[in-house]
Amino acid sequence: MKILISAVIGAGLVLTGCQTKQISEMSYKEVQSFASMIDKRCRPQVRTKAEYQMCIRQEITMEQTKRHQTRQAIRQGFAAAAEGMQAMSDNYARQAQSNTRITCYTSGAYTNCY
Questions:
Q1: Residues in Cβ contact with 114 at an 8 Å cutoff, skipping those fewer than 6 apart
Q2: What is the pTM of this model?
Q3: Which top-rank group of organisms is this from (predicted)?
Q4: 26 and which of 30, 82, 92, 93 could share a cystine (Cβ 3.0–4.6 Å)?
């Protein structure tokens, strides 16, 4: 279970890693790529320079907000996973202290553990 949780979190980080980096944390090349992406979004929608500047500002604000929210969601996911693992650990410790029989999964089979 712990391995599955870690794998899911790891995959999420790989997929969202670039989408959580704030503009101030980007390299020069990343900022250029980001600016090009924003430019491609705004050019077809605007007719004047003022509209273009307003579109650029709005798109950057939207991107920053999305990235911040994604970063927060990842942090909350880590916190929830840590709480879940702690609860499992506490449960196993309680059962081990009371020396009760529990079912364990070891070496590909379910067995009784004490």
A1: 96, 99, 100, 101, 102
A2: 0.55
A3: Bacteria
A4: 30
